[in-house]
Amino acid sequence: MSDYGIKPESAVHFLKTNPSHVCNATKVWDLMDDIRNIRTLKIHGIYESTFSLSLTLMQESGLLSNDALHVASMEEQSIDTIATYDRDFERVPQIKVWKPAKAV
Known about the structure:
Layout lengths: L10 H7 L1 H5 L2 H11 L11 H14 L3 H12 L4 E3 L12 E3 L6
Parallel strand pairs: 1-2
């Protein structure tokens, strides 16, 4: 995003309003492939219990649905830290928010 003079906290808004940049983000696809190839990477599903917990989190913390699903999944997998620039997660007392120093 730095190539476009976009601050990390504005990246989502920029990409939502400029979808062609998502379609042509070859660096991102390369990075996603690198992540997918991490041997110890575990991908967990979303279950009915996850969905139910996310509804509770929406009511308790005012999170939007996708954020609430992330937190619910974290809780089910005993994950207590998330790396994000999204300040909404700071409203959830049971998780730690890690803001990377530099965006990729």
